[in-house]
Amino acid sequence: MRFSAVVLAAALGELALAVPVQDSPRQRLLDGKPLPSKYRSKNAPPYTPGNKDPYDGAVDAIGKHLDPLPYRNGQGASVLGPWNKGRARQSPDLVRPPGTDHGNMPNLRWSFVDSHMRIEEGGWTRQTTVRELPASVELAGVNMRLDEGVIRELHWHKEAEWAYVLEGSVRVTALDYEGGNFIDDLNKGDLWYFPSGVPHSLQGLSPNGSEFLLVFDSGYFSEESTFLLTDWLAHTPRSVIAENFHLAPEVFAHLPASEKYIFQGSNPGSIDDERPKGKHVKTSKYNFTHKMLDQEPKQTSGGKVRIADSRNFPISKTIAAAHLDIEVGALREMHWHPNADEWSFFIRGRARVTVFAAEGTARTFDYMPGDVGIVPRNMGHFIENIGDEPLEVLEIFKADEFRDFSLFQWLGETPRRMVVDTLFKDDKEGGDKFLKEIKDAEKNEITLNPKSEQDDEEMSDEL
Questions:
Q1: CA-to-CA distance for 299 and 325, rounded, in angstroms?
Q2: Catalytic member of 259, 395, 413, 445
Q3: Where, in this chain's numbering, is Mn(2+) 2 bound (predicted)?
Q4: With contact defined as beta carbons under 8 Å apart, do 94 and 366 qualify?
Q5: pLDDT for 260-269, tens place per residue?
Q6: Is 243 a catalytic residue?
Q7: Reduced to 3 states, what is the DSSP secondary structure of residue 250?
Q8: Is 200 annotated as a binding residue?
Q9: pTM
């Protein structure tokens, strides 16, 4: 019962915290002293020798202020050497993996806080690419901040650029393949997409500018390989620039000597005031932006789902995405994606994910805000909200459409005899219960077990 486990862990966790640092469980072990009986009893808290959990339930080490140690169901031992408690709390399932983990799987987690921060005038940027996370071969991510009036200068990329506004407001400009200009102002939850080679710019708006996530359709992308206007002109003979723009070379005497990249600009006026009005100027017939959070979500039993791909955001031909709001105690159901790797970005909350890679291989990872997760295509997985607040996640794919297969739906639409023969050959009672549950074959992307809620309420009444 999830509630009883959480309450018990919280109570005992707080009791452990009340012990002076010099008399903590870890310190007693370091000093060669025996542990008090409460850490070896039947109801011992997680990460102590006496704890027993044959079902490998999740533990919110951060929310419960626990220090994860490698004890599991009577096995393991304390850590006597150096120990980074903060890191251990962020990834408790690496310290004490579920008993179901097995095999040799590469790392599928990276935190943006470990990425190099490039600091510029009024902003910053940091990236997660195949260089930081080798499993991230299909997509790369950049987290960028522009203060009010700060400009990410006119530029273009070899790769297509997809973006999600995390906070604040930002103005985007672009020129399409047919010479039409595009300008739009975006807010939290809005998207933009610029195909390969499309020139564009970004500027933070009042009052606090903007922060956003950029995703590029190659894991080998680098922010350092951007084609910048100032960089190009700084490396072009001034005589050529003068000839190109039909002006005397002296006009260009004070062009920037090197790239500007991110810099403080003047605050923009309204779009109508700033829209070009020359004789041959024309407005783009394409829409490079999309208001993802304004979409009507699919309401599931455990949260909300919004999907943006080429079907409702036609310009976005190489990147599809889903926005998930996962309630406390809910699960992004067991599933897999057949057409692309999943590149996940965790915006809020704490999560546990187990990735199944076939050949008896599985590994569990924990994620926090600002973390990136990779699930290679066709590998089975789930996303479990293990914290005390809603979990907000972006699932992003190098694909034109979002696709997934639901384990629940698959088994519900498979002949019942075959399901029972496979899973419940010698357990008729269990098989009957299982078949009853999957009968309607409902695809429920974010699921919350109503039986668990009932058990929690009953346990709460008892307490």
A1: 10
A2: 395
A3: 335, 337, 342, 381
A4: yes
A5: 999 999 999 9
A6: no
A7: helix
A8: yes
A9: 0.90
